[in-house]
Design a protein that fits this description.
single chain, about 900 residues, alpha+beta, Immunoglobulin-like, Neutral Protease, domain 2, eight-stranded mixed beta sheet, five-stranded mixed beta sheet, globular, binds (3S)-3,7-diaminoheptanoic acid, binds zinc ion
Length: about 900
């Protein structure tokens, strides 16, 4: 264990800085062994805070070469230096400070600050990476105009990029090149970016709503130039969508994207120069699956949308992270819903909330959307900040209506353009634009944990009245007890016996928004009375996943089947089916699962319904995943879940085998592949049908081999590959593992999919198998994508192996975390999540998980990142 325990930082301690930085001029000299950084800062004293003429700048892993204040070089006794800061003294009101540092990008394995990815240089500065480049006020409320000069070898690094507009470019006599960029928009340092490399560019233009032409450029390594079309198209659609949906126009004359292979996250919204993990931007039909295309569309949009929600209006401090992330995820989700199927998108979002976010809420790292404290901010780029934050924005739209929400967002952007603000500035704009009081609603930002709503209903045939009683509670979470009731929007409908929605009138009328069919649950317990209800209806609650809550509502299997067939809300059709399937899986766990014929008929009719969106049918026929089932279990028994799910899956495959085969055949066609919604939807169902078909019929397996050989696209090839390697025929599995690698070993992104497919396989991925995979030439501990493809896929998907009874899976994960703790702490901490659930897993397994956490805790030199997650998990 480390000697000094890392300290928490608290929201309540926020203070403005002693100085603002008006202008920042940076010069980077990229040399083979190191980089020299000269930073000239024009400071202005902040008269709003008490002054003593000193200023503490952040800095980490820097070699300080010199400090000059207003032309006077400072001697070592004129400033204080430690591992994390540089404190200057005796500053005037508007001093100019020039600081020189030396840094070592090629030794930077944490991938924060300036580092090398393959043959190129790139940066990642959010949240606190800029302090690894130079001493600075590395906090988001300090916004500055940046000018950047880059000097590098002209042959090796012909492309030199930074934020804003190119203002000068020259080749110097000694074979070096110098370029200068200026970004006229004030921004925090976390949005700074620099790229240097021998890159090719794909170019296009976009004409904004006011008629300005913007140059669009995607820079990639030469071998990837044929993988840029889709991202460029998604970018143009995003730019247009943001103009139409939010009235937001792009504000520079150039927008650049760069693809890099070594990247901790998906992508980064640096002003005018987005940097992307190559897996989130590069695609062509032969190498990328439909899912990858959809991911690219969403992430390109997300980073672009940040230009307003994040860059123009930024966060005052990192406790406000969800201000930009929750809002931007909400915006990209609406964009994806508009580009594809809104219902399917909602199902996908709910699956993530219910598996990953609800799990986070129920674990030791549970935190509010606006946290009160953190040890390491990198640990707070979570599903709670992002996805729950997006749900909280979405609930405001449900409450205010689409038009009211747009008025609120217009006011927010206009009022705070160029500012660094808080989450409550966002809600204030919503309140002011609509004349509503969201005081109660704001509890969603401060209370951690997933609220539970329990429902009872009573129908009085004589009075033709239905009463619905809703009670809410929210479990204790670390540091938070006795939660207050939340404002929960409950979108609902009542179905008559023909499956149609009944018109309703609700009492109390004040708790009901008729236009959006939303009940407002704001108290611990409320009863809503519906009158003129001519027959006993089937109740459909939380349509469209209108609030991120758990629901306890004891509806019969017949009612669930009815909703699955008839609900006018597609989301709730799916939800009813999942609730039913969870019951089957529970039946299977207690050894008495039988598929009744009514359910079988309904599933069959769904498969035969050609009017339904095929992607929707695919979701309706997909069993809850093992992690989804785990979240609905009081105590998690991973082996029992695995076997029960497998049994139900096999039973469905058998009962519906002829239909799966027919669906497969109906949807197989020879149209040229295109990553467009209709085709993607058809492929989703076709490949789901194949995955069932192979379970019962040798013919299915042969078809999978044929599909593998004939596929002209990765979606079909990968779907066939996954079924083949998971077949019970070990020789067949091995044969296809080899064949796939032989074909694709030259394409790193495809090889990563190959790694993930086997590492996440319940059939293959024992800890021993994974250990062998870690020795493969295709694996590299320094590359986060590869670590995620192997260790991440293993610990999050191959649950029966991760939770092997002998503890080998836990040991493997802990070894990986210990190994990565030194080289890439962010990735190490992220990988840990599955172990943190130990208290919820059956005791004999949980104890072994805990022992591995203790082993990690006993390591010396734990990073802040890993220390925070492990120490909080062991409380
Ligand atoms: N804002 C970045 C996340 C950076 C995370 C740094 N640890 C990507 C995004 O959410 O758009
Ligand atoms: Zn984001």
């Amino acid at each position: 264990m480390r000697d000094a325990q890392p300290q928490a930082i608290f929201l309540k301690d926020y203070q403005q800085p002693a100085y603002w930085i008006e202008r920042t001029e940076l010069t980077f000299e990229l040399q083979a062994e190191f980089t020299l950084v000269t930073s000239q800062l024009q400071l202005t004293r902040n008269d709003d805070v008490a002054q003593d003429g000193s200023l503490t700048l952040h800095g980490q892993e820097l070699e300080l070469l010199s400090v000059v204040i207003d032309g006077v070089e400072q001697s070592g006794d004129q400033y204080q230096l430690d591992d994390e800061s540089l404190t200057l003294q005796g500053l005037a009101e508007n001093p100019v400070v020039t600081i020189k540092t030396r840094i070592y990008p090629h030794k930077n394995t944490a991938l924060e600050g300036l580092y090398q990815s393959g043959s190129m240089y790139c940066t990642q500065c959010e949240a606190e990476g800029f302090r690894r480049i130079t001493y600075y006020l590395d906090r988001p409320d300090v916004m500055s105009v940046f000018t950047t000069h880059i000097i590098a070898d002209a042959g090796q690094y012909p492309v030199l990029l930074s934020n804003g507009n190119l203002i000068a470019e020259q080749t110097l006599a000694n074979g070096t090149k110098q370029v200068s960029w200026n970004d006229p928009h004030k921004k925090p340092a976390y949005l700074f970016a620099l790229v240097a490399g021998d890159l090719q560019v794909k170019e296009d233009t976009f004409t904004t709503m006011s008629g300005r032409e913007v140059a669009l450029k995607i820079f990639v390594e030469p071998q990837n130039i044929d993988k840029t079309d889709y991202a460029l198209d998604a970018l143009k659609r995003s730019m247009k969508w943001d103009e139409e949906s939010y009235g937001r126009e792009y504000d520079l004359d150039i927008f650049m994207i760069v693809a890099v292979d070594d990247f901790n996250m998906g992508a980064m919204e640096n002003k005018g120069l987005n940097i992307f993990n190559s897996s989130c931007v590069l695609a062509n039909p032969a190498t990328a699956t439909d899912a990858a295309y959809q991911r690219i569309e969403a992430i390109v949009a997300h980073e672009y949308f940040h230009n307003w929600s994040g860059n123009r209006v930024t966060c005052r401090d990192w406790f406000q992270l969800s201000l930009k992330e929750g809002f931007t995820v909400f915006r990209d989700a609406c964009f994806s819903a508009d580009m594809n199927s809104a219902t399917v998108k909602r199902i996908e979002d709910a699956r993530i909330m219910r598996t990953v976010q609800f799990a986070e809420d129920a674990g030791p790292m549970a935190h509010p959307v606006q946290p009160d404290s953190f040890i390491e901010i990198s640990n707070f780029y979570t599903v709670t900040i992002y996805e729950k934050g997006a749900e909280v924005v979405g609930m405001q739209r449900k409450i205010l209506g689409d038009d009211g929400f747009r008025k609120g967002s217009d006011l927010y952007f206009d009022r705070h353009d160029g500012q660094a603000v808080t989450i409550y500035d966002f809600t204030q704009a919503m309140e002011d634009a609509n004349g509503v009081d969201l005081t109660l609603f704001k509890r969603w930002y401060k209370q951690a944990g997933t609220p539970v709503v329990s429902v009872s209903s009573e129908y009085d045939a004589d009075k033709q009245q239905l009463s619905l009683t809703l009670k809410q509670r929210c479990p204790d979470t670390p540091g938070q007890t006795d939660k207050q009731p939340m404002w929960i929007p409950v979108q609902f409908g009542l179905l008559n016996s023909r499956g149609q929605d009944l018109p309703v009138a609700v009492e109390p009328a004040s708790a009901w928004t008729q236009a959006s069919q939303v009940l407002h649950l704001t108290e611990a317990e409320q009863t809503f009375v519906f009158s003129n209800v001519a027959e006993q209806p089937v109740v459909s609650l939380f349509r469209d996943f209108s609030a991120p809550v758990k629901v306890e509502f004891d509806q019969s299997r017949d009612e669930l089947l009815f909703l699955l067939q008839h609900d006018s809300d597609g989301f709730n059709r799916w939800d009813a089916g999942q609730r039913l399937m969870l019951q089957w899986i529970n039946d299977a766990m207690s050894g008495n699962f039988v598929l009744d014929s009514a359910a079988e008929q309904v599933l069959r009719s769904l498969l035969r319904d050609e009017e339904l969106d095929p992607a929707m049918v695919a979701y309706l026929l997909t069993l809850p995943s093992e992690s989804y089932i785990a979240e609905f279990s009081a105590v998690i028994d991973p082996q029992a879940i695995y076997h029960a799910r497998k049994q139900v899956r096999q039973t469905l495959a058998q009962a519906l085998s002829a239909d799966f085969k027919a669906v497969y055949q109906r949807l197989s066609n020879s149209a040229t592949y295109a990553p467009e919604p209709r085709q993607m939807s058809a492929r989703a169902l076709k490949n789901l049908a194949l995955s069932y078909w192979v379970l019962t019929d040798n013919e299915g397996l042969q078809q999978a081999q044929q599909q593998y050989q004939q596929a002209d696209n990765m979606t079909d090839q990968m779907a066939a590959f996954v079924t083949l390697i998971n077949s019970s025929d070990a020789d067949l599995s091995e044969e296809y593992l080899q064949r796939f690698y032989q074909q694709w070993q030259g394409d790193v992104l495809v090889v990563n999919q190959w790694l993930a497919a086997q590492a996440g396989s319940s059939q293959l991925a024992s800890a021993k198998f994974i250990s062998t995979l870690l020795q493969h030439d295709a694996f590299d501990w320094r590359n986060p994508n590869k670590v995620r493809s192997v260790i991440g896929a293993f610990a999050n998907q191959a649950l029966c192996h991760f939770h092997a009874e002998d503890g080998s899976g836990y040991r493997l994960l802990a070894d990986a975390v210990i190994r990565l703790n030194g080289s890439n702490p962010q990735i190490a901490a992220r990988l840990l999540a599955p172990l943190t659930k130990w208290k919820r897993v059956i005791p004999q397994q949980g104890a072994q998980m805990k022992a591995e956490l203790e082993r990690i805790m006993a390591e010396s030199d734990l990073s802040k990142d890993v220390y925070e997650v492990v120490s909080k998990s062991l409380v």
